[in-house]
Amino acid sequence: MPDMSASASLALTHLVTLAEVDEDKVTPGVLGFIVFAAMALAVWGLMKSMNRHMSRVDFTQVPDPKEAPAEPETAEVPGRDKPQQG
Question: pTM for the full model?
């Protein structure tokens, strides 16, 4: 059986380099997280409000009573022959 301690130590050294903090890098920190979380909560609240308002909207169209009722067109269409009688 191969010696697993060598591969474990190699994996550990790779993980340690990922965990090191570079002091020259700028990170958002706690304030950035709080601002992001507040914006996420605001968007969530706006979406709930929009959903509630959209459920109240009636999408059926009511005809305007001021308009004359639509009559079927009886005018002749140009280019059509009249039906022959008899």
Answer: 0.43
